[in-house]
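2 proteins. here.
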Amino acid sequence: MGKIRHFSSKAIFLDRDGTIIEDRGTLGSPSQVVFFNETFTALRQVVNDYLIFIITNQQCIAEGAVSRQQVDRVNRHVCCILENEGIPIKEIYVCPHKKEDMCGCRKPQPYYLHKASQDYQIDLSSSFVIGDHPSDTLCAANAGAQGIYVLTGHGEKHRSDLASETLVVPGIDDAIANILKQ
């Protein structure tokens, strides 16, 4: 007889560039990371109720602009800063492929949401994806999670590409405020 798995944890999946840190192009060094001022106060409000993950498409690796090791150093720095601010990141998932590669792990594919759901017993229907690109909210929809689109980063640029029912907010603090209302 198979083991029944109970999915009881809730999660917030964050895009990295343009959502919690400024989008400054290709980041090859931790010294290039600049957090939005509201990132820390916003995320501290949910650490007791949600597991927090980062999912980032980094096609710059496939293009040869930076190495996987450079991206990993930047990600470790982001995690370290967040953890020092009382915001533990459960895991960072990185898709290193170009859009043209048609891989299964690049947002809007829900690969990493499903992986996290299995690994951490996450109820995706009670979870959120926050990002500044339509692929973030599509990823949420593809996994049965709720998407929240922020206008920081590339948000304004791609706003017209969103589905009409997409929740759009100015930034991470408003995204978290909406989550807390639910």
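next one coming up
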Amino acid sequence: MPTPNKGEKQKDFMARCMGSDEMKRNYPDSKQRYAVCNSKWEQKHALMMKYLRMCGWTEYSIQQLIDYMENGEY
């Protein structure tokens, strides 16, 4: 099962995960496959996202931070 690579953007991971032969075989329904791939992505950032939500960050701000970190701009 695909997992996010260091520095990989969410859209790139989702495309790779959704197109994986293993994922297509295990999850032929694209909606279910999307949910599993998205869950894998969120697990990668779960602790940080939980903390930021508790601090009042919006989902948009959190995604901006993740994008910033994954682009190596910090």
